Amino acid sequence: MNSLNYVDSHLDDLVFDLQMLIRQPSVSAKNEGIEECAKLVQKILKKSGIHSEILRLKKNVAPIVYGEIKSKQNPNKTLMFYNHYDVQPAEPFDLWDYPPFSGTQKGNKIFGRGATDDKGELITRIKAVEASLKTTGDVPCNIKFVIEGEEETGSAHIEDYLKKFKKKFACDGVIWEFGYVDAKNRPIIGLGMKGLLFVELSVTESIRDAHSSLAVLINNPAWRLIDAIKTLRDSNGKILIKDWYKEVTPFSKKDLELIKKEPFDENVFKKEFGIKSFVGGKKGMDAKKAMVGGATCNIAGFVSGYTGDGAKTVLPGKSLVKIDFRLIPKMVPKKQITRLKNHLKSKGFSDVKIKVFHGEAAARTNSSDPFVNQVKMAADKSFGKSILNVSNAGTGPMYPFVDILKSPCISIGSTYMFSRIHSPNEFARVDLLKKTTKCMCLIMENFGKF
Question: Domain spanning 3-191+365-449: which CATH class is it, in words?
Answer without folding.
Answer: alpha beta
